[in-house]
Structures are given as C-alpha cells and as structure tokens.
Fold:
Amino acid sequence: MTHVVITGASSGIGAACARAFGKLGHTLSLGARRSDRLAAIAPGAFCHALDVTKPASIERFLAAAIAAHGPIDVLVNNAGLARGVEKIAEATGEAWREMIETNVIGLLEVTRRALPAMIARKQGHVVVIGSIAGHKAYVGGGVYCASKRALQPICEAIRMETLGSNVRVTSVDPGMVETEFSLVRFQGDAERAAKVYDGVRPLTADDVADCVVFAATRPPHVNLDTIVVMPTDQASPQMVHRAPKA
Ligand code: NDP
Ligand code: 8X3
Structure:
C-alpha cells in the first residue's frame, strides 16, 4: 500500500490528485486550511488541518498522518497561491510575502520534515506542483513567477542531495488550469476570475493529476524530473488562443 500525502487538497489540483490516487487504492493523507472540505474529496482518506505557513501546523499534520497510515511514500507539494497582478512598482509587500511564504518556504518546511525518513527508508517520491510561470515571467506576475522558478533549483538540489537513496523528485509544471486559483488571486472576484478562462479551453485539475499519477507510478528506477503540461491553446503564460465570440 502506498501512502500519499497531499498538501492543499481542499480544491483544484490537490483535490484531483486525491481522487486519482484514491482510485488506485492508495492510502491518503490530505491537508488544507479549509479542512472541513477534505472528507468529501476522497472518502476514507485521513484528513487534517494544515497551514503550510505555520511550522507547528505542519508538524501536527505530518505526525498525525504518519500515525494514521505509516511512513510517507509520496509527498505531493501542491499547496500554493497567487495574489493579484500588480506590477512590482505598484504592489504592496504583503501579497509578495504571502506567496513566498506559502509557495516556497511552506513547501520547504513540509519537504524537509518528510525527507529524512524517505532517505533512511531508501524510498520515497517528492512531487512539486510548479508552473509554467516558473519558466516564463509575465507582467504582473513577477513574484508569483519567482516563487515557482525557485522550485527548480530546490528540486535539483534535493535530487543531488539524496542521490543514492532512491528518492525521486518530480516537478509537474502546468499552464492554465481552471480551478479556484484565479478566484483566490482576485480575492473572490468571480467575474474577473472567469475572464481568465474566457474563450479558452484550459487544462482541468484532472489533467494535471494524470501527470502526477503517471510520474508516481513509473518503476522505482525511473525519475521524471520535470513535466511541463500546457493547454493546446496556450503557448506561454500570456499567449493564449481565444475563440472569437459568436
Ligand atoms: P486552488 O486555489 O483551487 O487550490 C489551492 C490549494 O492550496 C487549496 O486546496 C488551498 O487550500 C491550498 N492552500 C493555499 N494556501 C495554503 C496554506 N497556507 N496551507 C495549506 N494549504 C494551502 O488552486 P490550484 O489547484 O490551481 O493550485 C494548486 C497548485 O497549482 C498551486 O501551487 C498553484 O500555484 C499551482 N498551479 C496552478 C495553476 C492554475 O492555472 N490553476 C497553473 C500552474 C500551477 P486552503 O485554502 O483550504 O488552505
Ligand atoms: C498559474 C499559471 O500562467 O496563471 O501557475 O501564472 S499562470
């Protein structure tokens, strides 16, 4: 039985990963701040509150997950967010700090607590949900893009630091995915969020979960380093084909 731990499983890509791993019969531990949502996502999963920006919350979550289902085989570092699209000269530091603290420091704080047991057991897989934003910057996305770009050297370093221990590290880097991401980015402005996907066929969270599951189900000697997955209608973060309005 494989124990899969997913951060940010209360919606979008994290929830889709939970459903996909659940279908394979894997044991799940799911965390998010909105923990009330988790039980309905994958019945039978161990569910627990988690705020990746709070070390004490991470420790409670991981200890409870390990107590429930044993050592972690796959860690899906999915929790993340963007806030706003202000240019650097117009932004406030508050949104920057929230993105960096969640997407980078939060991910590191979870990962550093999971890795030692993986190294000791000589088995484990760390999956990181990066983004096309980590490969190409765009106007108004500087700090979000930086937070996702930062995951690349972090993954590279972990691969080097764990070499010889069978630990695998995969970054799954999607383009536009229709989830609650834009609603969160625009502070609950549903009309503005919907415009992001206007006339486009974006990826679904299930499309991304397919990639995560594919990477995690390769034989142990195969490591998919990076999977970049884009909607066919998107060539870069801000180059999107939109169907003309009828
Ligand atoms: P959603 O907003 O639908 O999901 C984000 C998830 O992250 C939620 O479950 C949320 O749970 C969780 N989360 C946010 N902050 C925290 C925190 N401090 N502690 C724990 N959990 C947290 O968006 P997506 O599913 O799209 O986003 C998932 C990941 O995918 C993110 O890392 C995002 O950057 C990345 N991504 C998204 C793309 C897109 O176009 N949608 C494209 C490329 C990458 P809760 O609020 O309950 O804590
Ligand atoms: C989210 C994708 O292009 O909106 O990571 O930044 S994008």
